[in-house]
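Sequence, please.
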């Protein structure tokens, strides 16, 4: 058996288009497959939340070097003294945890049903970049890190309590802390 002759440019383009078409098809199907999976396994009424309008652009009103910056994550981060997120509820857990600004990453815990937290535990900065935020403040890139940060567990099948109550509570706390900018870090 001889080696296969190299593909010509036109063949590469055709193959790339086929791969891209297949990837687009899988992406479109994934949304529906994921919805059906959640309905079958956990929450029969589940549907994706739809947003009909893009979020308006909110430019900074001052230089980044003068901004107070907070972290908000959906990675299920919490302090060792806080209760873990509810991993058994089929509708998820719309609650949040406050993480003190002076928290040490090695003292933080992870509770989440949507990803393997063991790997992230080795480098919590990958989902909750608190050390990086502190470095940016020390270097003068940002004005300061916020006095507290917030964490959610990203699986929330019943979103109404999150949208109507929990998220507005966190937004008010961020405003009260004088936060100018939030870094949103998903798991």
């Amino acid at each position: 058996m001889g080696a296969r002759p190299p593909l010509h440019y036109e063949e590469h383009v055709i193959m790339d288009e086929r791969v891209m078409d297949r990837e687009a098809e899988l992406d479109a199907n994934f949304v529906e497959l994921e919805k059906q999976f959640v309905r079958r396994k956990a929450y029969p009424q589940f549907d994706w939340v739809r947003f009909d309008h893009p979020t308006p652009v909110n430019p900074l009103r001052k230089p980044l070097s003068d901004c107070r910056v907070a972290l908000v994550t959906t990675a299920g981060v919490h302090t060792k003294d806080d209760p873990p997120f509810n991993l058994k509820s089929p509708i998820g857990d719309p609650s949040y945890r406050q993480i003190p600004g002076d928290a040490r990453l090695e003292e933080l815990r992870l509770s989440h049903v949507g990803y393997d937290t063991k790997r992230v535990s080795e480098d919590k900065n990958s989902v909750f970049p608190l050390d990086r935020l502190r470095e940016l403040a020390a270097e003068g890139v940002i004005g300061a890190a916020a006095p507290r940060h917030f964490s959610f567990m990203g699986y929330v099948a019943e979103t109404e309590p999150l949208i109507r109550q929990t998220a507005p509570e966190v937004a008010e706390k961020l405003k009260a802390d004088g936060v100018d900018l939030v870094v949103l870090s998903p798991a």
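The chain has a mean pLDDT of 86.
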